[in-house]
Amino acid sequence: MAVQNRIVKIQKRNRALVTFDGDRIRRAILKAAQSIGGFGQDHLPAINGRLFDAYGDGESLAEFLAEAVVVSLNADPHHLITNFPPTIEVIQDDVLHVLRSYGFQNTADAYECYRWGRHWLRLGEIAPEQFVGNGFPEEQIQAALAWNQQRSCDTVAGLNEIICGGRLRPLVEESLAVYEASLDEAAGKVMARLHAGDPLRMMWISGPSSSGKTTTTVKLTERLERQGLRFLMLNLDDYFWSLVEHPTDWINDRNYETPEALDIQLLNRHLTDLLAGRTIDKPIYSFKEGRRVGSKPVRLEPGQILLLDCLHGLYPPLTEGIEARAQFRLYIETLNPLYEGDGTSQRLVKFTDVRLVRRMLRDMKHRAHRPLLTLLHWHYVRAGELFSIIPLRGLADYVVNGGFPFDLPLLQPYFIGAEGHLPAPEDFTPYAGFLDARIRYERVKRLLESVAGVPEAVAREVIPGDAVIREFIGGSTIKIPHNE
Predict the structure, then answer these.
(1) What average pLDDT does range 318-339 have in this prediction?
(2) Signed CA dihedral, 426, 209, 312, 263: sign only
(3) How many helices (H) and strands (E) does the chain have?
């Protein structure tokens, strides 16, 4: 299908003007789709089914989407002025807009992660070998998938057989043993750095929302404290800007998921001062009032290590001027590969959906925040992690897998059934334009309905109090600050 195009030039990042080539857009979209297994990963009959019927799932579909980007670019009259054409960044924004508008959510995520990874690579913040492409660590996923296959829990159907057959306890014990062993290895790497003479004074626990950072932070530091290390924890929530500096969107929501939600300049200065042995006046933030209400003096004592549990711990501006040898950066993500149904579709459950379900439960139980609102907010979460978290995972000194085969069966009873808290379809009527939330809702609903749930009484018997999942279902024997 031919479309009218009046854009002649584009502006490169060095401000040079070059001839517009729409086929580059087609190739980039197709590459993003192929990196996740094809456009079929985004096939949603009720949303984009007619596109698949008309164009298939290959190059013709990529061509249609690229032409839709051209139409979007031409809609802005500023782009038609010869000396002020669209920039590369504007074109990339429009690619994402088109992909998400037609329901190609997973393709858009792959494109966006690759885009920002290249951004950090150009700035020199990551090395070529630290570039993570579309954000899926193939080697780690394949290793975890092989582990699951050996235990017949690599598909929802197989997992359901384990649950219904009363064989959950051995799976829990084996899964947690792998996680604990990874923490032992992480602690060993910290101690090795110190024994090698690195001036290690700062440790970051980073990763996307609801990946299990708090439990992992406590369990890792306990191991290191037994080896004589001492820590000072700095609560980075105190560095949030006041509410008045967080504008609301059209549904009165705010974007707290971007690193710019923090006073980065002040935080960086305080981190530098603490490492230099100076006392800082750390702000005290009141979430009830939505502003800073005071400050208190804080000093890092000789021999102490500064401990920071933060979404954006890998974000370069936070640690600008602080040498890498002074830091140990641990990254955690929920990388449990699980095929939908019996596996014949070859579609993996989305890792981000597991974290979304975790956060819906946490927000509901501990923040009086309805699951509907968490779903409507998740596009902010995803945008933040695709910019300043996942593309930077190559900077981590060690990666922990915080995803477990038993997560979904434990979460399921809180959302499905007569007492379940999953929103009803009609709850989305006032938000008809929020396609992102609708896609996630329908996908999560289908997923949870396909999973056999574990009754709470059984969970109490087989899930230890210090397991990561306890951060979300409750009953943790570890102090969880954000749940208090």
Answers:
(1) 96
(2) positive
(3) 16, 9
CA distance 297 to 305: 17
Say if residue 329 is in the same domain as residue 231: yes
- HSE-up (13 A, CA, CB side) for residue 130: 22
Q: Which CATH number goes with the domain that contains 387?
A: 3.40.50.300
pLDDT, tens only, 256-292: 899 999 999 999 999 999 999 999 999 999 988 889 9
Domain that holds residue 90: 9-130
Q: What is the spatial distance between Cα 260 and Cα 217, in angstroms, rounded to a whole number? A: 23
Question: Residue with structure tokens 């923090």?
Answer: 262
Summary mean pLDDT of the chain = 94
Of 340, 347, 336, residue with least CA distance to 449: 340
Helix (H, G, I), strand (E, B) or coil at 401: strand
484 confidence band (pLDDT: 50, 70, 90)? very low
Helix (H, G, I), strand (E, B) or coil at 388: helix
Cα 229–204–127 angle (5° rounding)? 125
Q: Which of 130, 153, 175 is the last residue of a domain?
A: 130
Whether the Cβ atoms of residue 47 and residue 57 lie closer than 8 Å to each other: no
Query: Is 50 exceeded by the pLDDT of residue 311?
Result: yes
pLDDT at position 481: 57
What pLDDT digit, counting tens, does each position of 27-53 carry?
999 999 999 999 999 999 999 999 999
pTM: 0.95
Pick the last residue of a domain from 99, 130, 161.
Answer: 130
Domain count, the chain: 2
Structure tokens at 195: 């024994």
Alpha carbon separation from 447 to 95, 181, 471, 478 (Å, rounded): 28, 30, 21, 29
Give the separation between CA 68 and CA 98, rounded to whole angstroms. 7
- Cα 332 to chain centroid, rounded: 10
85 is a domain residue: yes
For residue 484, give the amino acid letter.
E
CB 333 within 8 A of CB 207: yes
| Residue whose pair of structure tokens reads 């002074």 in the numeric block | 326
| DSSP 8-class letter at 333 | E
- Average pLDDT of the residues in 133-160: 96
Percent share of the chain, pLDDT over 90: 88
